[in-house]
Amino acid sequence: MESDCEDDDRKVSPTMVDITKLITSLSQQISNQSNFIQDQLLKQQSIIEHQAHNDLKLQDVLQSNEVFKQEVKLELENLRNFLVPPKINTTPSPPPTIPPRVQPDPPVNSGIQAPGPVDSNQQVMLMLAESFSKLSSMVIHDKGSETKYDWPKFSGETKTFKAWYLAILVQLSLPQWQDLYDPSTKDIVKYTTNVALNGKLYAKLITCLDGSALQSIVARTHLHSDGLSVLQNLYQTHHPLHIPEIIAAKTVQFWGNIKRMPNESVDAYYNRFKELFDEIQDAEGNIPVKNAVRHFIFTLGSEFEPIQNNYQIDNLPAKWQTVGWPTILVLCRNFYNSVKPQGVPSQPSKNNFVVHNVDRLTHQK
Question: Is the pLDDT of residue 94 over 60?
């Protein structure tokens, strides 16, 4: 019987030991998770306190501006009273004589006697100089208090993302952020070992984000304290260049659907065409510029049939055989104005390529 009991104890004891280890490991994991959550809360609290500190600085600047405005008002009121003094002395002023004009020194006693014209002008200039010196010093101080606005805000609008991202890259190109910026590609690095600087970038970006952009980043806990991942996520969300479906859709629109509307000007259509072409090129669409220029001319409308016909027979002058977009815009604009002038009959222009009578030999060739 005793041997049987000993065997039962041996069978039970390993299970008890495993349960104890499991409970210990679970408690350690819970404590680690609680410590991590506590650290995140402390970081968020520090960010909020920093923002509140900046708000207090802004309030101090506003109060100092109000005090300065009141001082300027008082000085202007004193200046007005000085220029138009009250008539207290009813005694007639002595007739002007030559000695006061010859001796310009008596302004020393101007506080007792009525000021002459020369003395009043000097005092007015002194008061104005003092006021403007205070004003210039206040403006310089006010500019210094706006350094926190160097990093712009982004609220989630895709149209403004590119400008915002370029502004952030300008900030990261400064020496204090050099570990996060790659000067060869003029973009952020893919990863970094400087964890502290990366966390500082995350805190800085949180203060720059607003609206839906801020909500999407805060909701993704795996991005916390990782500024580089936040920028990469925002770039992929609001500027998706390398998604095959988007590239294919824009390419189909470029080659199949885009054309100038009947009431659309050449400049307006050029802007719309060039914007779509640039988006495809940025997405590595690799459309040759020569083919894009040809497609632009063939989608301008029936007014450009002479140019289109000579494109087909390869009979264009040298100035039209260019791939420079500004040059193409100028040529097309001038050609359209020559074909459809405003208020005058259509006349050939010497500076534009207007083809009405093409040489038969050229056609045969």
Answer: no
My answer on whether 79 and 29 are in the same domain is yes
Query: Is there a single domain that holds both residue 196 and residue 295?
Result: no
Helix (H, G, I), strand (E, B) or coil at 187: strand
SS3 163: helix
pTM: 0.36
pLDDT, tens digit, for every residue of 154-210? 988 877 888 898 889 989 999 999 899 998 888 899 889 999 999 999 999 999 998
Task: Provide the number of structural domains found in the chain.
Answer: 3
Beta bridge partners of 181: 188
Q: Quick one: 310 and 214 in the same domain?
A: no
Amino acid at 348: P
Do 234 and 248 reside in the same domain of the chain?
Answer: no
- At 191, the amino acid letter reads Y
Domain assignment present for 255: yes
Which candidate, 197, 144, 136, 201, places its Cα nearest to that of 168?
201
* CA triple 287-292-297, angle to 5 deg: 170
- Phi/psi for 154 (5° steps) reads -140, 125
More confident residue, 88 or 44: 44
In terms of phi and psi (left: phi > 0; alpha: psi -120 to 50; beta: otherwise), the region of 259 is beta
**DSSP labels, 282-319:** HTT----HHHHHHHHHHTS-GGGHHHHHHHHTT---GG
> Torsion-angle region of residue 186: left (phi > 0), alpha (psi -120 to 50) or beta?
left
pLDDT band for position 241 (cuts 50, 70, 90): low
